[in-house]
Structures are given as C-alpha cells and as structure tokens.
Amino acid sequence: MSTEPETEIEEESSAENLPQTSSHQQRRIEEKATRKSEREAAEKAQAESLEDEETYELKVFRYDPEIEGKEEPRFDTFVVPYHKGMTVLDALIYARDHYDSSLTFRHSCQQAICGSDALFVNGRQRLGCKTQLADLDDPVRIEPLPHQEVVKDLVVDMEHFYDQMEAVEPFFDPDETPDDELEEQRQSRENREKVKMSTRCIWCGACMSSCNIAAGDNQYLGPAAINKAYRFAMDEREGEDRKEERMRIVEQEHGVWRCQTQFSCTEVCPKDIPLTEHIQELKREAVKSNLKFW
Amino acid sequence: MYEYDVIVVGAGGAGLRAAIAAHEEGADVALVTKLHPVRSHTGAAEGGINAALREGDDWELHAYDTMKGSDYLGDAPAIDTFAKDAPKEVVQLEHWGMPFSREDDGRVSQRPFGGLSFPRTTYAGAETGHHLLHTMYEQVVKRGIDVYDEWYVLDAAVTDHEDPEDRECHGVVAYDIKSGEIDGFRARNGVILATGGTGQVYDHTTNAVANTGDGPAIAYRAGVPLEDMEMVQFHPTTLPSTGVLISEGVRGEGGILYNDDKERFMFEYGYANNDGELASRDVVSRAELTEVNEGRGIEDEYVHLDMRHLGEERIIDRLENILHLAEDFEGVDGLDEPMPVKPGQHYHMGGIECDENGHTCVDGLYAAGEAACVSLHGANRLGGNALPELLVFGARAGKHAAGGDMAAARIDTGPSARSEAGEFDSPVDPGALSGSDEDVAADGGAVADPDTVLEDAVGRERERVETLLESDGINHAEVRAEVQETMTENVNVFREEGALKRALEDLKQAREDYQDVAVADPSRTFNTDLIHTIETRNVIDVAEAITIGALAREEFRGAHWRKEHQERKDDEWIKHTMLAWNGGDPDLYYKPVVLEGDEQTYEPKERSY
C-alpha cells in the first residue's frame, strides 16, 4: 500500500468527531475515480503483460434465469495467466476476482474433501480443485454437471442427489449398543477395511452425473446412495436384522438391479471408490440371502 | 418468519453436535448454514481426537497436557470439563458408527501426538474430520432435524440495552442463497454460533474460503467480547499455491527441511538443535520465515520438504495421501522432487468469549467450536484437541440452550468479569467509521418484544442488501485482498510494534474502502458476489481485533511472538485480552486466567518438550 492513503487516514482520524461534510464526500468521490483509473490502468497493463506469459483460455458455461442476456445459456471466454500448480478452480477464482464477479460456482475447502466443486471439464466429471490445468488441453471447457438442473452458471441443484442419499436411511442404526457410555462396540480390522473405501464419499455428485442409468431413470438411487447403503450393510456392528432392511431398500425397483456395470461412476470418482464393485457385491449379497426378487 | 426453540448457525462438527444435544433435550431445533453440512471444514481435519480412554491414562493427565500446551492461558474449568467429557463423547461417536481405526481386539486405536504424555489420539485413517463430520450429519438426518442449507446468516437479533449483560438474543436474520429471500429465524430459547475458523483474514491459510469469521464478527457487534484474538496458530508445512496442509507425519517419518542453499537449516542455523524438523509448530514456522527473510528461501517464498530418501516403499505405505496432495494441488511428484512448503494460518485459538456451557454474556446467545473461546487452547492448541472440543462444547452448548439441567458455569463472562482496563497505542481510531451505518445508536433496550427485535433486524438487513445490490462501486475482492496482504505482511508469525501499527492503518483504510463496495451481480439467484461482499466486512472486523490483541500483548506466549518482548511475562500477562465493540469504539480490557481446577491449581512452568 502506498504512503499516500496513510496521510489521509491521519487527517480522517483527527476529523473523526466532526459531522460529515460535503468535502468528505467529495474526497470519497475523487478517491473512487482515482481508484477506477488505477484499476483500469492495472487491467490494461495486465492484459499487455499476459501477451508475454503463459496463459490458459477458459470457455465457461453461463446462465442466469433472471438476468437479461443470460437467460439463454452461452459460453464466455476468459484468458488467465498460468502458474505452476494452478488448478481449474484457481483459474475460475482468478477469472471471477479479476474479470467478472458474477461468475458463479461452488467451492470451499480447495483440497478435495468438501465435495462442492464437481464440474464437467473438457467433457468429464472432475473436481475443479484437484484438476491441474497442465493436465488439460487448452482451451478448457467448463460446464456444470450434466443431468442436473442448472441454478446459475456452474451451480447445479443438488436436492435430487441429497434426496437419493437420504432414501437409503444413511445413518448407523445398530440392533443394540453397549449400556456403558464408556464401552465401545468391537469392530474387526478386516471389517473396518471392508467398509473403508465406501466411507470416503464426499457427496460431490460426479458419479450420479456420469451415470447413463441415472440420466434415464430419475428414481434410480444412483451410485453414491447405493455406496452409502453398502457402507452400513457391510458394517458388522449393525446386526443382521438391520442388514435385511437395508437389502430391501437397495433391492427395490430403482435400486441395484438397474446398474448395467458401465463403470462410468468408478472412473470419475475423485476419491477412487470402487462404486461399481460395491453395487455388484450388493447384488450378489441379495441373491445369496435369497431375498425376494422384485 | 421461522420459529424454533434453538437455532444453530453453522453445521460443522460443533454445530451438528449442538443440534443433536438440543434435540435430545426435547427442543425443536434448526441448523442454518451457508454450506450444506457435509461441505463444512471440519471435514478437512486429518489427525485425530484426543480422549483419555485407556488404563494408564486419565482425564487429569489430558487436562495437564492441555494446560501446559496452552502456555497457561487456558482456563482450568474449561480444560477440566473438556478432559472429563472427551472420553464419553468419543465413545458416543463410536456408538454412532464412526469408522475409527481399530486394534486387533476390535477397540478404537490411539496414537501418540505432539505435546501429549500418553498416546490418546483416536483417529480414522488420516481423514478423521471427514468421518466425524459425516457420522454426525447422519445422526442429524436420523433425527429429522431441520437443516436450512445454503442460508447465510447476516446478523443476530439482539436487544439494544446499554450493558451487553442486559441484552437478549431472539434469533437471526438469514439470506437464502438460492432464492435471495431474507427472513427471520426466531429462537425461543437460544442461538448457537458455530461458524468455525477465521482463516480468510490471511491470504495463505489451510482454512476453507468459507471460514470468514462470521460468528465472531456477529457476536462482537452484538456486544459479546472477543477473547485472546491475537492467538493464531500457523502450521509450518502448507503448500505455497493453495495452503493445503502437508501433515506433520512427513517430518515424523523423517522428512527434512532444506533452504535454497540445500542446507538443513533447522540444525545449520541452530533453530532447534535437539528436535530439528520435529520442534513444535511455532518454532519451525519461525525458522522457515527467517530463512526466507534472510534471502535463503526458494523464489523468496518457501523452503523444501524432502522425503525422497525415505524410499518409495515406505512413502507409499505410510504417506500415500501426501503424494496425492502434492501432485493434485502443487503439481509436484514427491517421489521425484522435494515439496515446496511454507507456514500458513491454520487455527484460531481466540474467539467469542463464552463459559463452559457455551453461554456468552448476552442472554440466549451461545458459541461453540473454533468460533468460540472458552478458553480451552489458550495461547496454543495441541494437535488432536480441536475435534474433541467440537464434541464436548458443542454438546454442552446445545444442552444448555435447550434448557437442560447443568451445573452453573465457573468462568465469568461479559464486562463484569473485567479486572483491568487495557491500552494500546494505535495510530488510528479502530472500529466503526463515524457517520457510517456500523454504529447503530443504542436505544437502551426500548424495543424489547422479541418479534419486533427480530423484525427490526430483518428490515435493517434487507436495506443493507438492497443498498449493496443497487449501488455502484468497487469489488469487495480488492478490499479483502488489502486486508489479507497487510495481515500476512504485518500480523503473521513475526510481530513487531511498527508493523502492527501499519496494519491498523491499513485496516482503517480497508474500512474506508469498504464504504465504497458494491455488488456487480444484480441477480437474486445464487449471488456469491453478494455473500462474499458481506463476509468481507466480517473479515475486516476480525482482522482488526487480532491486530489490536497482538499490539496490546507485550510478551511472547505460545503462538504470539513479539520482537520487542521475547519472554513470557507471567507476573503481568496471565490474563486474557478482551475486546468489546462498545458501539463501534472498541474497548480493550483484561480478565484473569482461572488456574484453579477441580482437583488442582495449575502452576505455570516453562513450556519445553
């Protein structure tokens, strides 16, 4: 920060208790104008310097149902300066903070654990934060997750995904727990290992978006929800009665039998969860336990 | 208008635990949260959950370790309560199905952690926070607790009595991000602020972009003092471009830190001749920055963390996750080249002043988790103590707010706990700008009807949002960048008087500039431009509070290092720095640290490991 504004601050503080005068407002307007011209100069300089450095071109899907000119979906182009390690999310943040503050996308942790920023990047479901620009062809085409309703720009409506997750009764529900509040249930290392990958799900929705079956059957539970059911059905702490109930849920008309083992969910899962295998295992379990076929 | 007994703001670990506890007391509860619960930053915690579960360990040892780790700035009633409640909270999580790592006998595993006298850290792989967050959200779903996700809380509805201890909180005002609707949430019993960390005050942090200190800023402006705000923890190994955390495990396994001259500086320059890379977090962070400041950093920014000599087999066996992080977030292959690392803001020990039951000095207003300051962590938080804090104090706040039967708190809060006035030599007047709308005139509590208090607050927030949407001005991102730059430059690991004063000047300028912000996106649909703009005001308030605390505390304690004051001064400084908004004219004062515990009085000792 330059020293100039500091001088102004001192003047400001000494005048702190005086009523606001029009000169104060005048000064603010002048400051605003100065800032505007400085900003424009900086942008111009940046655009010029961009010519010399490595850049990436983003083609970003834009849509806003209530803004004139955005009701019809379109693609906007942003050219961003590249630095080593830059991710798709970094590039989007740069474009938003430097070119267009209305560019809208979800993101939070920036480390692939919150699951907010699953996007359709160059034709594939990926987490923006863990996708290196260097691994992509330029220009980079960024769209919202397919097969979900677009709220605005890259933000999709996740309600349907959440509904499916909740439909499998996604909570631990043992037949009984120890009476003593300090006594743990026992779980073998093998059993913990068995459910381990299934517990890594971050609810990003990439799998559901990649699934052709889910696209054609809106009631299909989908890979993430079935994986959640797997996580509890295979947990030895829950007990046999609960497991039977869980099997009934995944065996329903829009459950595991819909899966055609195309492996698209497994391919796009950013946490490497063997989703298709889990679905197949539940199918085998269903046959084994001789439950009634729908 | 929505109406509930208890409103919980934020749905990370503390918020979820509070909601479950309140629900179990029979209260009608709602979670109001700007992120869907599973997006919360609790999910990023890696290490574990400390609890004295086994023979040979007991709560008193855990309490002692925590007090020592706090550098004697934690309050004994908070620490004792924490250490006593932690075991049953951990087993409760186990009963809720948390996929803990296990021993051969099927019981929950525990491992050693820094600063602990017993291996009492329970964990679930290196994703403990993720599992804790999802396990608790599952229990919220099971109970059918109402969740308003992607609703951003703008402010609390608090009466305007002169003395904050006479004030009452009747609810919150929230903005539905998807629709743009602004509405009131009336809380018949209480509001619990569980909004998490404040890392966005700095430009390099392990925190999420959502961690903007909304709760502390809201409580502060409502009259609740902020406590020990200068106490901020910096983690020594974060990736330079994103702030992603590289676990202490790398150094634990034998990873080595090098400067640009390929020197093993921790030893070569005598920063830690015994422990080297494994010295405590604050020591290593200071060493790295000294290297950079003296021209031995790489690209004048970072140092190298090298683990190649450990061999591919061992790295893949024990540190596989680190390879993914370095590859995905920095484009570096840790098997082939050293990883760039630098210190990053990690955790805020300070926060909203509250007692062991989560209650603040404002009736009906509670705080829990990282947003709160009970004070448990004092001047330095031990690894593995943040997650049990969420459980213990989230549960207590929820139960108390729901009217549960609990012992009276021993920690005093509010202006009446003041023991001494504080002073700091500021070059500018911090706090509200005169003539701005930040300083709403107190009406002495003339409006007391709860519904009216809430409706008035809703009206104010609607007006504020309209103004931001309609006016023309600068982008908030410029102002936020100003704050982050000055905080990182001047109120970081190293703190000196001149720099702290420059930061206060810069923050004053940021406040001035914020007067000119406007939201460029006119849409009512998912307007993140608007949300970030409102957050930025909170970022400014929190940044200023941190800086004032740092300027006032003239000693070196825990995470707080002062160039001019290189010693812990127990005679003078075993006291909390308290900052009250005071209608926009911040009032600094002190209150004593409580060292008298349930079983013993803690005697300050030198903190050496």
UniProtKB/TrEMBL annotation, chain A:
Coiled coil: none annotated. This is Succinate dehydrogenase/fumarate reductase iron-sulfur subunit. Residues 1-51, 171-191 are annotated as: Disordered. Its cofactor is [2Fe-2S] cluster; [3Fe-4S] cluster; [4Fe-4S] cluster. SUPFAM superfamilies: 2Fe-2S ferredoxin-like, alpha-helical ferredoxin. Residues 1-14, 172-183 have a biased composition (Acidic residues). Residues 199-273 form the 4Fe-4S ferredoxin-type domain. NCBIfam families: dhsB (TIGR00384), PRK05950.1 (NF004616). Residues 58-162 form the Succinate dehydogenase/fumarate reductase N-terminal domain. InterPro entries: 2Fe-2S_ferredoxin-like_sf, 4Fe4S_Fe-S-bd, Beta-grasp_dom_sf, Helical_ferredxn, SDH/FRD_Iron-Sulfur, Succ_DH/fum_Rdtase_Fe-S, Succ_DH/fum_Rdtase_N. One of its GO terms (molecular function) is oxidoreductase activity. It comes from Halapricum salinum. Belongs to the succinate dehydrogenase/fumarate reductase iron-sulfur protein family. GO terms for biological process: respiratory electron transport chain; tricarboxylic acid cycle. Residues 27-46 have a biased composition (Basic and acidic residues). The keyword Oxidoreductase applies. The lineage of its organism: Archaea, Methanobacteriati, Methanobacteriota, Stenosarchaea group, Halobacteria. The keyword S-adenosyl-L-methionine does not apply. Keywords: 2Fe-2S, 4Fe-4S, Iron, Iron-sulfur, Metal-binding, Oxidoreductase.
